[in-house]
Amino acid sequence: MWCRTGGCVVTRQIQLDTQDGVRIVRLDRPVANALTPDLRADLLQALREAAEDSACRAVVICGIGPGFSSGVDLTEYDQPAATPSVSALCAEIEAFPKPVVVALHGAALGAALALVLAAHARVAQAGAQIALPEIGLGMMPGAGVTQRLPRLAGAGVALDLMLSGQTVRTEDPRLADVFDRLVGIAPEAEAVALARRLADEGQWRRSCDCERGLEDPLAYRDAIAAAEQKLQKPSGAAGDILRAVEAAQLLPFTQGLNFEQVLFDERLQSPEARAQRYVYAAERRAGGMPELRGAEVRPLRRIALSGTGLGDVAMAFLEAGREVRTEDADLARQVRQACMRAVRAGRMETDEMQRRLARLVPERADDWADLVLDGRAEVVPQGVPARPAESGITALLDSGAGLGGARLGLRLYRPAQTLKLAEIAVGEGAAAGDVASLARLCAETGRTALRAALPAAGPGLGHVMMGVLCLAALDLVREGLTPLRVDQAAQRLGLRHGPFLLMDIEGLAQVAQRLGKVATMIGARPPDRDGPLAERLARGATGRVAGRGFYDHPPEGPRPSRDMAGTGLDPGEVPGGVAPRDALHAALVNGAARLLAAGAVQRASDLDVLMVRGYGYERLHGGPLFQADQRGLLAVLKDMKALRAVSEPLWAPQPMIEAMVRNGEGFFGRVALAVS
After folding, report:
1. Which of 592, 597, 591, 582 is nearest to 632 (CA)?
2. Mean pLDDT throughout 632-636?
3. What is the domain extent for residue 359?
4. Is residue 281 a part of any domain in this protein?
5. Is the separation of the CB atoms in 298 and 391 below 8 Å?
6. For the chain, what percentages of helix, strand and coil (3-state, to nearest 5) are there?
7. Number of CB atoms found within 10 A of residue 499's CB
8. What confidence tens digit (pLDDT) does each residue in 232-261 have?
């Protein structure tokens, strides 16, 4: 429904104004003008009314707020198709009987850029940004992007943007043929003037008729060939993008659109795209904690660190503009060396290094810090960590032993500069404001934060999930498999590194201590008393630092240890005939169900985010729980029952899983009871 406010007509999501015959259509939907079906319908209605209004000579489309539009909400792609589609809206804009000009400020992402390209002219504010991030989600751009962008800018530019997913500023020289005007101020006024001039002239060019990017056929084909060579037999979304851009040169425009739509629909429903959309949405949900509702959030700008070996933690906070103090006299040296390496590698300017080092003070500071992070070992030496300032926070910083027993704890997944994941352990009596302040700190430093409820989470969510994986791996070796075969199975499941290599990297003594806690938590036998891990420790093979663990670690990289080598059992000989990959998966799923049933974690998707962000689980697999739903929980349950004789605590099915199978449910709703 349209209503009038002064001279402006508004709906819930659109504002309409008219200036000297130019209809201005302003997108006004919090947050970020996402192109929801309702907004698309309002925009389509506004366009059709403008077409019928004899007093309207041209149209300008722009956005209200920080940017033009963030595009389509990804959750829409997992639901029945809603009308009008973005493709239909773009076709309406392109065929509009009056000139349509887009005024771009802020950002236009994904499907929003499709609207921009469909317009007859484009005015952009310098510093505005565009991006086609679909490839990072296993998808390809649609709504005519693969056909219009090459016509405007050529195959090379189009492929650069689509295959990289990078964000590009509008003043980038590559976009010179995309935007008709660049302005230093808000672009609406210039867009209105341009629209009025086009109406006066009575002619304008549609993108489908533009041939600037097609003028040099040889250069066009060379750009496609170069992209193919760089990608080395491109497949998936990258392969589809190349085929669609090639079609823009070979097919008439309408047929090219049809070809793009077929590829887009197929790619949209591919398992890889569904998994990556799921992970993206799960990451956005993960930060939602009950303490953020109504609690006082205090800024944490001054941070005191207690403990050793925290150079990466200090660097992460300094990078985020925080001040850091520490009792560890060696930490300043570590940070200085890391900064100098970054300067030599060209990743940091010298001035920035000096600014960061100026915020690091290697001395104790009682009553100074907003946040004191106590990262000392479990056997705490004499003394106590620095006292925070009044109303400041003290939290246990996980140094590898876990967060069990903490009132308030924080685990920054290491190395902290590259793994953008944190786990906030919330024990009984933790103040809501303290939790909320830690969560805000994580968000401000670019981290996804997960909430772990203590004592249900034991030593921590990540330690439990990786703990059951490592305990399962050790049991498979007891049954006759080699560490190499188990690690290869873990990689086929989706992990970047297998559990035995990860144990070597961390150090077997520390791993044994923590696995003992996980084993006690689930009622399994501690791994440091007998079995493969105890045997390695007894031989002095303590991990990568020592040069030997489950693998030997020469300078050229890890290789199977001679005394752990051999072919091992064939996968078919594993008890119950369960493949190692499926055995590891079943242990992870069972461990996750234990945490969920105990209330240790807020939502099932948080555990998939943990595995993807913290342990390198491939995004195209979605995480172990997403995989379980896709495969069918009945199949996973059968594997658990076949393996429970190997270790009852690890593989005896959790009642939650049996109940879900009985009810035809999965971790994320009702699923088909498929068996693979």
Report:
1. 582
2. 95
3. 290-455
4. no
5. yes
6. 50, 15, 35
7. 26
8. 878 889 999 999 999 999 999 999 999 999
